Amino acid sequence: MTARRIVRRLAAQGAGLRGGSIPGLFGFGLVGLLAALTLFPTPASPQVPPETEARLRSIFEAGDFNARSFQATWLPDGSGYTTLEAPTGASQRELVRYDAASGDRTVLASLSGLTPSGASEPLNISGYQFAPDGSWVLLQARGNGSWMLEWATSTLKQVEAGGGNTISPDGGRILFGRGGDLHVHDLAAGQTTRLTWTTAESVSNGRAVWSPDGNRVAFVQSDASGVRMRSMLVPTDPSYPELREVRFARVGETIAKLRVGVVDAEGREVRWISIPSPNEGFYLGQVSWAGNSEELLVEQFSRFRDERDFFIANVRTGEVKRIYHESDPAWVIASYRLNAGLEWIRGGDSFLFLTEKDGWRHSYVYSRDGREERLLTPGPSDVMERGPVDEGEGWLYFFASPDNATQRYLYRVRLDGAEGPERVTPEDQPGTHFYDFSPDLRWAFHTYSTFDTPPVTALVSLPDHRVVRVLEDNARVRRRAEATIAHPTEFLELDIGDGIVMDAWMIKPRDFDPSRRYPVFIYVYGEPHGQTVLDRWSTRNNYHRAIADLGYLVVSIENRGTPAPKGAAWRRAPFPTIGVQSTEEHAAGVRELGRMHRYVDLSRVGIWGWSGGGSNTLNSLFRKPDVYHVGIAVVPKPQPHLYNAWFQEIYMETLETNPDGYRVSAPINYAEGLEGDLLIIHGTGETNTHLEIVEGLVDRLVELGKTFDYMTYPNRNHGLSEGEGTAVHLRMLMVRYLLEHLPAGGRAGG
Q1: Distance between first and last Cα of the chain
Q2: CA Rg, the chain, in Å?
Q3: For residue 339, which phi and psi values (nearest 5 degrees)?
Q4: Cβ–Cβ under 8 Å, residues 614 and 527
Q5: What is the pLDDT of residues 69-105, one digit of tens each?
Q6: Cα 340 to Cα 309: distance, rounded to the nearest angstrom
Q7: What three-state secondary structure class fits 271?
Q8: CA geometry: angle at 430 spanning 429 and 433, to 5°?
């Protein structure tokens, strides 16, 4: 331990002694202490090896392991796709079309065709969307507004548009938002009509959607006037920083009031849909036209998301009818919202949707009046996500992985329920698969990756899954990955008893010797919003491999409560807490890992996580000091009752309704259990896990006289990505801390 570190630690301990000092420190004198350290120098802290630093810079600075994604837009008729490509030697991009079947390339809009009259440079196109009939395209140009390009005449003209542009069904108008209000621009007349009139900054109108006949627009109005303001520093003048105020709905506080409106396309009259409006507030899911231009579908969630309703509202008569209701003691709709929404079939006579009412996430068909017609996906397995409907051929596509919760595959099932689901993804491609379907469902961009293999995107035909052509192979990233992978990542199952089997992965060091014992470094998230044990490519995997090659077993474990496709009971098991059960199960998983493999050194165990993973890191160190010896908590939330209402209340309700749940879930309440080495990392510009949430824990640790380390990055937000060099500096900090406090490398087995 260096002199600098001893001083920092002693100072932290002294700060925790109320009204006193560290015995002998100030009697002997700090100068005397430093002199003694000079006479008896301590060994220098371990340094990050140059090759590791080079790898970190390659990952986070040069982006050498960032896989390229294929970006294209399907033509409305599905015959081909379009993309933006820069000609050789040019900096700007032109719009090109590829025929799906043949691959023939056609330039739809050349650089000269994208150069406005009188301009010397072409538009710098950032995005585009086609009119419903494909006769023209709306272009968004960086710093230069929106433009309409008509194919028949090659006419390029500037038009008025804004946020959330939506083209009318007849292709003659553009609906957009600006300043909290909705506007419609008529292309033929060149005139813009304001549809809504908002006078307060707290009120906004959005989520607008055209009726099928183009005569009306449905929208959602949000009134946040009751939501409290939170002051934040604006880093202007260092001596005289400014303040800005943002609205923030904390757990248990007032949330924004929502209502659904319908306005005619000329902006003459707004009608409000009369759905139940409880005092505590509610949230909205899908708001869309119910298969015609007279009726509107409104999906409503209760504040705690433990109830949902589908309503059909007649926009002329005002009649509102509930066609479906669902409730659950925990929650119906989670933060990832995979169950949300429905899709109309049979001309609007029926609809299909996802629900977990029978214990698994299944797809059901209901009649328009709310009668259950059939279960499409029976059996003890989850639909991971709903895909498109091919009503002409009678199929529903969906994603699932019945036998392995770390992977993802495409399936389809008959809409009439006559046959069981069938897998579309080839059996010889284990891993994770994503699809971007053409409108006619004859084609798809298929992206396939594994933990150790970068994604490959190919155009495939459906349903035979024939590869037509490879669109992006990421060959360069693949070669780099192969050079760093000495041992394939191992996927494990950890049986901790009581029928609980958790998935895990493990990365071994390059020089791994099974006769020796290695320290373990756990990567954790563990909260309901995401999984970490996934068989898919991620830049984070390469960071963990760089750490493993220093002499660590890097491991991640999937506890109950994460959104793994293992059934509703798995996902809801921790309710109404977060962090309690995950801490117990992770600790049990670490012990089971040590029982399974003699090369696991349980006397050297570290853990790290980001956001919710940071919270689980704190809980692990505070509650399980006999299991974990080092922890790195990045942007954690040690006081969950101070977090935002939208997320936290799904899984824990409020402090008023669930005081015990909040008490036992808060890491700050267990800080006295800290025995190991803890590094907390945060950004002072946080808009998600606010700095004050963490500094409350810092104060508590100081009060307890606990030794810990705390690093803040000025004005960085939740991703800690702002500022040149931040990404590399953060990872170097973590690696240095790990090397200093959790000695790397294999030791002789015992």
Answers
A1: 28
A2: 29
A3: -80, -10
A4: no
A5: 999 999 999 999 999 999 998 999 999 999 999 999 9
A6: 11
A7: strand
A8: 80
**Nearest by Cα to 553 from 519, 523, 576, 583:** 519
Give CA–CA dist 389/356, Å, rounded.
20
One-letter amino acid of 288: S
* Degrees, nearest 5: CA angle 200-202-208: 95
- The answer for residues whose C-beta is within 8 angstroms of residue 153's C-beta and 6 or more apart is none
For 729, phi then psi, to 5°, come to -60, -45
How far is 585 from 526, CA to CA, in rounded Å? 10
CA 373 to chain centre: 34
Give the mean model confidence (pLDDT) for residues 313-330. 97
Q: Which tokens sit at 654?
A: 């409020």
pLDDT for position 21: 39
Preceding omega of 576 cis (within 30 degrees of 0): yes
- Tell me phi and psi for residue 53, to 5 degrees: -60, -40
| pLDDT confidence tier of residue 43, bands split at 50, 70 and 90 | low
Q: Is residue 727 helix, strand or coil?
A: helix
The mean pLDDT value for 290-302 works out to: 97
For residue 726, what are its two tokens?
């931040």
- Contact predicate 474/67, CB 8 Å: yes
0.85 exceeded by the pTM?
A: yes
Instruction: Output the CA torsion 415→417→420→421 (10° steps).
Output: 20
Q: How far apart are CA 85 and CA 130, in angstroms?
A: 17
Beta-strand relationship, 173-178 and 163-167: antiparallel
Residue with tokens 């086609």: 130
680 forms bridges with which residues in the sheet?
633, 710
Task: Tell me what the mean pLDDT of segment 149-166 comes to.
Answer: 91
Rounded to 10 degrees, the C-alpha dihedral 85/87/91/96 comes to -30
pLDDT 10s digits, 590-636: 999 999 999 999 999 999 999 999 999 999 999 999 999 999 999 99
Give me the phi and psi of 544, to 5 degrees please: -65, -35
Mean pLDDT of the chain: 93
